[in-house]
User: What shape does this take?
Amino acid sequence: MILLEDVSKTYQTGVRAVKDLDLRINDGEFVFVTGKSGSGKSTLFKLLTREITPEEGSIIVNDFDLDSIRRRQIPRFRRSIGVVFQDFRLLNDRNVYENVAFAQRVIGASGYEIRTNVPRMLKLTGLSHKYKNMPYELSGGEQQRVAIARALVNQPRVILADEPTGNLDEANTAEIMKLLEDINQMGTTVVVITHSRAMVETMHKRVITMDKGRIVSDSGALQPRGGSVVLPEDVKSRQKRRIIRRRETL
Amino acid sequence: MRTFLYSLRQGLANLRRNWLFSVASIATVSACIFLFCLFYSIIANVRGIVYTAETTVGITVFFDKDADDVRKAEIRDAIISKGGVKEVVYTSADQAWEEFKTDYLGDDAEELSAAFADDNPLADSDSYEIFLEDIEDQESMASYISGLPGVREVNYANTVVSVLKSLNRVIYILSAVIIGVLVAVSVFLISNTISVAAAFRKRENEIMRLIGATDFMIRAPFVVEGLVIGLVGAIIPLCAVFFIYRRVMDYFMAWLSGFSSDAGLIGLVPLERIFPELCAYGLIFGAGMGFIVSFFTIRKHLKV
Assistant: This one.
């Protein structure tokens, strides 16, 4: 589950990228976050991956409270999410197999785990026959599928994709979205950040629209798919404290 | 173990990728450790000579003509009670004359000494030879003995001592300055090499960070790189020093054999004794420098 409460982020330049953001994404949801350039989508992505921290508000992802998370717990948190980028971020000196295996190696997975999981992910993403190819020998769509396989191989609970089809043509975009939908069907929460309204409209999923750092519309707010969500105790108590504080202010 | 092997492979890959910087760093570390070994050898040998002097060069005490055996025994007791005395050897006038004949008259000893018959020319030269624990105490001990009643003359090798002492001090300061400069250059170059490696692997490190690699996993390849630079940079000069020292020693001993009377005082510390020390210090110095510099450099470059 992803839960944001009153989250605000202002960069050192003085730009307030996100303002008083409240957002809840339940386990197993497929959500698009859309909006124009500068609407705060990428800041939201960085907040969710804990690349940056907010000045105000709290963020909970997969039961990790990103406010109070200890530095040495951050790697464990990041293993619970998978990230996909517009520019794929593949290692060009390694072939497809090694790019996917890389994600397992850096978390200290055993040789057996790597030999089992990597072929499974390559099969899932339809890249089994290209495992020896280098990234530059693949099309954009194939490169993005490698990136998705790498994001999935550590079995994350959430996939965060920042403009995953930004560099792809229509056919490849459809392929990637189909793949993400299949992954979501298997139970993984998928959050896709995009500025493409056309793609969003064809998918019929929950759409969160942002503008000037705020959520201006949410097609699926308060409609959890997986039933009621049990919040961690510390979140509940923090929510209570916040409500009391607000009452006092009023 | 898996993490260690991964880090080792990646560290070696870093070295291969920035081979030019790696070679420059290894060369500077090598130069630094070579000079360290050179000065260490010189200092160890000077110390060896000082030690030889301490054990072979003593203070010679001659007595007044009217000093009897009781007086001489009192002088001996006074010297021993001052402390720091390793040995006191009494040489009688007859022994002194015999030693003189052996040392200075050579093959003509029989012929020349016959002229003196029973008249010992060193009749008043019976003496104490005093060996101290520390050669640096010679000056103060000599002045103390000069003040004792019944002492006519005190001889000691103050020139040898002061020369050895100042030589050792100069070498020590010189080596500290040169090694200090080289350590600074090595630190700069290793740090630069690691920075370049970090720049090369910027994308990889970003991905690692987002995938959930720990700080240790991200930093380890760079620390391995620094460690390898330090170790290789130490092994090269140690090999060079091994062969150079042996050659110098052979040459020096051959040259010294022409001056047989002084050979006992001036001798080189054997390679078998000095080399294990050089290896230990060189490897610790190289590996330590590589480890510390890379560890702190990468801390600066990677925000995890």
The longest strand of chain A covers residues 16-25. Confidence is low (pLDDT under 50) at residues 222-231 of chain A.
